[in-house]
Amino acid sequence: MRTQVAIIGGGPSGLLLSQLLHQKGIDTVVLEKKTKDYVLGRIRAGILETGFVDLMREAGVSDRMDKECFVHDGAVISFGDTEFSINFKDLTGSHVVVYGQTEVTRDLYDAREALDGKIVFNTDNVTIHGADTDTPFVTYTTDGTEHRIDCDYIAGCDGFHGVSRQTIPLTVRREYEKLYPFGWLGVLSETPPVHEELIYACSDRGFALCSMRNENLSRYYIQCSLSDSPEDWTDAAFWTELKRRIPAKYAERLVTGPSIEKSIAPLRSFVTEPMRWGRLFLCGDAAHIVPPTGAKGLNTAASDIHYLYNGLVQFYEEADREGIDRYSEKALARIWKAERFSWSTTNLLHRFPYQNEFDLKMQRADIDFLRDNREAQSVFAQNYVGLPY
Ligand code: APR
Ligand code: PHB
User: Fold this and answer.
1) pLDDT class for 82, splitting at 50, 70, 90?
2) pLDDT digits over 120-151, tens only?
3) Residue 188's pLDDT band (boundaries 50, 70, 90)?
4) Which ligand 1 atom is at minimum distance from the Cα of 13?
5) pTM for the whole thing?
6) Are 157 and 165 spatial neighbours (Cβ–Cβ below 8 Å)?
7) Does residue 292 have an active-site annotation?
8) Does ligand 2 come within 6 angstroms of the Cβ of 45?
9) Once rounded to an integer, what is the mean pLDDT over residues 197-205?
10) Which of 169, 182, 251, 316 counts the most CB atoms within 10 A of its CB?
11) DSSP string, 107-157
12) Is the CB of residue 164 less than 8 Å from the CB of residue 280?
């Protein structure tokens, strides 16, 4: 088989790139290790920057999102019983959109299928060949049969555990990582959200987050120990602990119910450099991971896709390599700022096992400064709604 861009990974990054390139008549093939249902079964976050929303619009995949999403002009930060709201609209003129990553991925699959996009599921042994030559190709097997795709370029959108990053020699690749000494226990419940805005809560007992998917689907998280497993937490124990970490007025009106999904995610900051090696480009989780505190996971994947999509269009339409030659530099410049924001909000709102009295006072002073200082709130808001591409 021959295509222009072989895309490894059928998650939001790979699908969005495939859909955008299709709009420009650029041919792609997406290779996905799992089934479509498996990919759609993964519960992930749901806060979209306006840059991501604009990309979905450009891809022609925004109808359902526009109908069903929530537009949020602000978020609440609480510290024990004190709370304040950061008004993104007032501080930046912009907002964020609440629309689950699962729904984003579902809409992208529907759009690819509607345009007969080439997606191969259940691919095994995906291997990248000759990425550092002018004749790259990818091989894979399905049902024991070997297949080969010759291509011009390869987009590695195969997530943190994918094959693409591993293809870049260690002599070229430099990795930066920070692991956090706690995880997030997340629960999805068919209950009405406790508040119309997200609540980021820091308490003596640790972090908590109140988020949502729609009028009757809520998403809650509490900071938990990395040695915990979801089975260690009954629903009752989860709700009790959540109530202890959010201001009393919200705890009193919190509607609880059975969890329809419960999982623990470790927190990690990770970046690999460079994000390009010859004809291979890394995008999204294949190149970087952020702790979810800043809601930057999907949004950093989107900015990668923005830079790569525009670079490839510039190449195919104008034979101009400037965009693809500067892809890694441009993508990383924005990634590191999102990493910094995600790392600083994680430090601001979580309890660390080794914090001493002085550290706690510093954390408190940080929160008080954010509460009382408009410039500090503006910096937070600019990062939360998304820095320009
Ligand atoms: N071959 C083919 N597909 C693969 C391989 C492989 N060797 N390895 C992984 N995949 C597939 C996975 O099954 C998954 O569907 O690649 C896809 C990668 O998707 P994601 O992990 O969702 O990564 P990405 O598309 O970059 O989306 C980033 O996902 O994890 C969240 O917070 C993150 O929101 C961010 C978003
Ligand atoms: C979510 O809705 O799942 C969510 C929202 C904000 C975050 C992280 C996760 O910072």
Assistant:
1) confident
2) 999 999 999 999 999 999 999 999 999 999 99
3) very high
4) 25
5) 0.97
6) no
7) yes
8) yes
9) 97
10) 182
11) HHHHHHHHTT-EEE-S-EEEEEE-TTSSS-EEEEEETTEEEEEE-SEEEE-
12) yes
Pocket probe mutation, ligand 2, options 207, 221, 293, max atoms within 8 Å of Cβ: 221
pLDDT tens digits for 256-277? 999 999 999 999 999 999 999 9
Tell me the C-alpha distance between 281 and 327, whole Å: 8
Task: Determine if ligand 2 sits within 6 Å of the CB of residue 43.
Answer: no
Give the orientation angle of helix 50-58 with respect to helix 12-23, to 10 degrees.
Answer: 50
384 in active site: yes
pLDDT (tens digit, 9 = 90+) per residue, 377-388?
Answer: 999 999 999 999
User: Of 33, 95, 262, 296, which one is the catalytic site residue?
Assistant: 296
Any catalytic annotation for residue 72?
Answer: yes
Alpha carbons 103 and 169: distance in angstroms, whole number = 35
| Spatial separation of the C-alpha atoms in residues 65 and 98, rounded to whole Å | 9
Residue 20 structure tokens: 């955008």
Neighbours of 110 (CB within 10 A): 12
